[in-house]
Amino acid sequence: MDPQRRAFVPRLSRRGGRLLLAAPFALIVAVTVVDVLVPPDVHLGPFLIAAPAVTASFAGPRMTAFVGAVAVLAQSAVALARTSLTDLNHTYQIVALVLISVIATFFAYLRERDESTVTRLRSIAQAAQSVVLRPLPRRAGPLHIASVYLAAEEEAQMGGDLYAAARTAHGTRLLIGDARGKGLDAISEASLVLGAFRVTARREQELPELVGHLEAGVGSAEETENGPGTGSEPDETADSTEEAFVTALVLDIPDHEPVVRLVNCGHPPPLLLREGRVTALDRGDSSPPLGLSDVLAPDAEVETFPFGVGDVLLLYTDGVIEARDDSRAFYPLEERLTAWAGYDPPALLARLRADLQAYAGGHLGDDAALVAVERLAPER
Description:
There is one protein chain. By secondary structure, the protein is α+β, with helices and mostly antiparallel strands. The protein has nine helices and eleven strands. A six-stranded antiparallel beta sheet has the order 1-2-11-10-7-8. Strands 3-4-5-6-9 form a five-stranded antiparallel beta sheet, covered by helices on one side. The longest helix has about 45 residues, at about 90-130.
């Protein structure tokens, strides 16, 4: 967000707050004036209860108590103008107004306390996100990189989708993945894979060995949850479908060779944008997802594709292609990309993000991660 817009938003918030605060006072004035002018058998005092009740929904306990006190004074002024403070009808109205004001002030205190707790938790979540899901560098050797993370939960900062980048002596390695499920379990699996990638991406010379370390990371999570082997029989009531796994795409992009080497572990294939055309980098043979090596053969096959200057590579998770519109049709990613050929990675992802959210009606059914990579001409 640009600085001018940042300054404009607080001004709008302050202006809106003043307008909200004026509403209960306007109500008090209006009810008081009308109550004095109407015939004696008409009593509008009970309407004053709305003033502190409404204030408690957006203001703090002090302001709520102040509005309640003003409302009580206004009801007292009406009693003096029409009869007296000892009039039984007005006495009941004043007592009821005092009780409602006290209750509204208490609820305003509870709301303010809960909001403070939510604010602290949100700041902790943002700090955790910056540690677990670190922003990708804008430049890595000859590569121009941009990334976007869209959480399905409105208040969530991250979920089970993940991405990372690491520089090696010969190029750049990228990882994008999607941990099974949602919530804390998915985040835990994602953090383990990210940790394994950051530790080993610079050390392993070959992609299959790197994928093996990532596989071991997911396997260690399952051993921690199930406990070390003790020779006891497995729980027959356990649901085998709850096994953890992570789909992943691991790429190696050399600095001085116009290719991209990748290992696809059950993940949607990357899309290559070249000269206005979109091509899926998929030869039909992918390795099993990480964490399923005991179910399927863990053969990590390295595939090589051309990736030259001016080409843009789009990595994504299934939350993108599984987004649906009102007619329940899936998002046509490849078809939409052809309209944005020639955009650099940040502009491409900005267009794609806006179009995806509009297509899904502003709410995605699953987390979505996007990474765009462009190979630039070598610097002299």
